[in-house]
Write a structure and sequence with these properties.
With 421 residues, this protein is an alpha+beta fold. 20% of the residues lie in helices and 39% in strands. The protein contains 3 helices and 25 strands. Strand 6 (88-93) and strand 7 (97-102) form a beta hairpin.
Length: 421
């Protein structure tokens, strides 16, 4: 019994050792698999170009690498290609990488490819191939070929058969426009996009480019462009051809009317606001000529231009001044006479006037002072003056004697002089 017991104990120990060994082996294999990191990358490729798939292994222990297509058919097993598709070519094979290229990619090649590493259990990594299809050339259509200023125009841009669906932007010159887009998916998993934009045009928009720009990962700078054709009413301006300065009585007046529009103005006419044009005025096309002006011609003269869009006008106000009363003396103009010389002469004239004014002021001041002095002198000597004509009349006995004494005889004639200032 003891032997039997010892045998059973020995068998049990053997089973334990074997089990432990298997467990250690399994743990080592699991650790080895976890240490072998398998990786790859997703690929986007334009239709017709070449895609490259890379299966990478870190810390490989000689495990087999293979590449499978979306249908899980083996493309490459190590460096051998079982699949009979010559578009697949081996780019690189080593213990750590299997790299394969696929040329002339089409939509049927799109899908999930599998990198597989033969371990226990096997490892897998996935590479999604996305095929990009650029849309066809965009086309712009307009609701009307020609639009008049102030009206609204509408443009539509269409980009067909793109994958993924393209995005459409609008620009008028350097200005961004906002459009409304519609996306339609076709039977072959392609997309057609239409965008519509509308805006009001002005005369400044004539000839302006409007661009439809396609944004798509498979193509750059894909656009269509159309130049706007805008009709607008005339722009009118009156130019005075003669005279250059003031309009005076007896002068001649010549006015020219300049009118531009799209289409070109088909009619240009002259009128006088609130009155008739003088009977002898001559109108030739866009020109107005009036001879021998007088003040009865004063008023507002209007040039009116019209085309298919509308009409516009410009006004000229005529005011006739009096003719010069005297004819200025002709002078000889020195060719070397410049504006600086004229300025110098003007300054000299101002100085001469200042000197003359100063002299006049001094004379007037002297006269004023003299008047003041004389006035004070007369005021000082103002009073009663006595003469000697009646001297001796008080002592006379009678009137005759008084008269004789008052006259003083001939002897006093020289003494009766009076002086007046």
């Amino acid at each position: 019994m003891a032997i039997t017991g010892n045998g059973s104990l020995t068998f049990s120990l053997s089973i334990f050792v074997i089990s432990a060994a298997f467990l250690l082996k399994g743990s080592a294999e699991i650790m080895s698999v976890e240490g072998q990191n398998l990786g790859t990358d997703n690929v986007s490729v334009v239709e017709g170009e070449t895609a490259t798939i890379s299966c990478r292994v870190k810390n490989n222990d000689d495990s087999v690498i293979q590449l499978l297509n979306p249908n899980r058919q083996t493309i490459y097993f190590r460096d051998v290609r079982p699949l009979k598709d010559s578009r697949f070519q081996l780019v690189n094979f080593s213990d750590n990488e299997l790299r394969v290229s696929l040329s002339n990619v089409s939509l049927s090649d799109e899908g999930r490819y599998v990198c597989q590493l033969y371990t226990d259990p096997p490892q897998e990594a996935y590479a999604d191939i996305t095929v990009l299809v650029p849309p066809g050339l965009p086309m712009i259509e307009s609701r009307e070929e020609v639009v008049s200023e102030g009206n609204e125009t509408e443009l539509t841009c269409t980009a067909m058969d793109g994958k993924p669906a393209p995005t459409i932007r609008w620009m008028k010159g350097e200005q961004d426009l906002t459009g409304e887009s519609e996306v339609e998916e076709t039977y072959n998993k392609m997309f057609t996009v239409s965008s519509r934009v509308s805006f009001t045009v002005a005369k400044e928009d004539d000839g302006e480019p409007v661009s439809c720009i396609i944004d798509h990962p498979a193509v750059k700078d894909l656009r269509a462009q159309r130049h706007l054709e805008v009709m607008y009413k005339p722009e009118v301006k009156i130019v005075v051809e003669f005279p250059e300065g003031l309009t005076r009585e007896g002068d001649n007046l010549e006015l020219s009317c300049i009118a531009e529009g799209k289409p070109h103005p088909h009619q240009i006419s002259w009128l006088r606001v609130d009155d008739d044009v003088p009977s002898h005025a001559v109108i030739t096309g866009s020109d107005l000529f009036i001879e021998n002006l007088n003040k009865s011609y004063n008023g507002t003269y209007r040039c009116v231009a019209a085309n298919a869009v509308g009409e516009a006008y410009d006004d000229y106000i005529l005011f006739v001044y009096d003719s010069p009363t005297s004819i200025p003396t002709p002078t000889t103009i020195n060719p070397d006479y410049t504006q600086d010389s004229r300025a110098g002469e003007g300054t000299q004239q101002k100085l001469d006037h200042a000197v003359i004014g100063g002299v006049v002021a001094v004379v007037m001041f002297a006269i004023l002072c003299a008047l003041i002095v004389l006035g004070r002198y007369f005021a000082r000597h103002k009073g009663t003056y006595f003469t000697h004509e009646a001297k001796g009349a008080d002592d006379a006995a009678d009137a005759d004697t008084a008269i004789i004494n008052a006259e003083g005889g001939h002897n006093n004639t020289d003494e009766k002089k009076e002086y007046y200032i």
